[in-house]
Write a structure and sequence with these properties.
2 domains; 21% strand; 10 helices; L-2-Hydroxyisocaproate Dehydrogenase, Chain A, domain 2; 307 residues; Rossmann fold; globular
């Protein structure tokens, strides 16, 4: 297995390290356009191997020829948000970055899977699909795992329980219109609606929607990278080991949930083929309306992308 991570910033470098620590590839290539940065970080990571005990070769490059024949390409490059910015504010700049990077990487690795992390994530995944011309099952985005992780963390903080006993689901676009589902968020199998009053449930759902912005506000000069990288590693683990895990991912809809030709966060079966199946959840009328609002927002944003 060979994995390329495009972008050696906080998200890309942390992702590469987590993938190496989990020994999910024989070789990890860290690519960036900044001279010396990917080489230095790659060398630092490989010198971590004797301490951590992994045998994955990690090396950096500025040349796409070194990414040839990758099995999985993780796209993290792009401008990060600053306080007051939405993910959509990054549209024009990151569309250009993703188009350039994916066109070169896809040409060198025509059989690869493409995992997109760059924001605005749903639209950047669409850009990657159009540029690569790969089958949609092989082009998908990381979003729902991060959003559900935030939801689970907030529930654990509220109730004073282990995050390991919390299951959650967030649908829709990766942004302010995401759709956290209280009905499907449980602690030890018990719905959170049975464990806390409605106003606390509503507050947690709202905090989940703004989870990324909350971190950006603290950091001031960047955005989250530990949790996003961990989410990528979880997806990569299911792909590399063909686990067929059910994970919330940004996937291309072909009629599911009454929508098609749009990327949305939905529960997916993730395996060696990428998005192998989409599972449909029984949504009530309120949840359907929120999902539709999210779909309409992503469509409108995608229409502005210069692909």
């Amino acid at each position: 297995m060979k994995i390329t991570v495009i972008g050696a910033g906080h998200v890309g470098a942390t992702t590469a390290l987590m993938l190496a620590q989990k020994q999910l590839a024989k070789e990890i290539v860290l690519l960036d356009i900044l001279e010396g940065i990917p080489q230095g970080k790659g060398l630092d990571m490989y010198q971590t191997a004797p301490v951590e005990g992994y045998d994955t070769l990690v090396h950096g490059t500025e040349d796409y020829k070194d990414t040839a024949n990758s099995d999985l390409i993780v796209m993290t490059a792009g401008l990060a948000r600053k306080p007051g910015m939405s993910r959509d504010d990054l549209l024009a700049a990151n569309t250009k970055i993703v188009k350039d990077a994916i066109s070169q990487a896809a040409a060198k690795s025509p059989k690869a899977l493409l995992l997109i992390v760059s924001n605005p994530l749903d639209v950047m995944t669409y850009v990657a699909l159009k540029v690569s011309k790969f089958p949609h099952q092989r082009v998908f985005g990381m979003a729902g795992i991060l959003d559900t992780a935030r939801l689970r963390a907030f529930v654990a903080m509220e109730l004073g329980v282990s995050v390991r006993d919390i299951s959650a689901m967030v649908l829709g676009g990766h942004g302010d219109t995401m759709v956290p589902l209280p009905r499907f968020t449980t602690v030890g199998g018990i719905p959170i609606t049975e464990l806390m009053p409605k106003e606390r449930v509503d507050a947690i759902m709202e905090r989940t929607r703004g989870g990324g912005a909350e971190i950006v506000k603290f950091l001031k000069t960047g955005s989250a990278y530990y949790a996003p990288s961990a989410a990528v590693a979880e997806m990569a683990d299911s792909i590399v080991k063909d686990r067929k895990r059910v994970l919330p991912c940004c996937a291309w809809l072909t009629g599911q949930y009454g929508e098609k030709d749009v990327y949305m966060g939905v529960p997916c079966v993730v395996g060696s083929g990428g998005i192998e199946r989409i599972l449909e959840m029984p949504l009530n009328s309120e949840e359907k309306a929120l999902f539709k609002t999210s779909v309409d927002h992503v469509r409108a944003t995608a229409a502005k992308a210069a692909i």
